[in-house]
């Protein structure tokens, strides 16, 4: 099982494409994961609206994956599934990697400057050291 993190960013789409190629070459199943953000105290008042928005994002990502599969049907020959969980992106990806018994985790490099100070999801996954992690720029 190859686990790829997808949040809609360019680097996460590249990571998903890389993970799809890896899964295809290894005859493995690809799990594409979107971690829906947890509502903070400030957004709790808008809870239903934010919850609907994160679900809409998940639905749009799944639709885009299905469209890619349709367009690339001659090369996209692999078993895959889309999973979504709520939570912190690092904790969500780590939990999924453990639950799915992932052989590898593939994520995109962070595009946010602040992550150099506090650490990106990719860096935190690498530091966890529980699975091979590939970070795609």
TrEMBL record:
Residues 2-137 form the UspA domain. InterPro entries: Rossmann-like_a/b/a_fold, UspA. It comes from the Bacteria. CDD domains: USP-like (cd00293). Gene3D superfamilies: HUPs. Belongs to the universal stress protein A family. PANTHER family: STRESS RESPONSE PROTEIN NHAX, UNIVERSAL STRESS PROTEIN UP12. This is Universal stress protein. It comes from Kitasatospora aburaviensis.
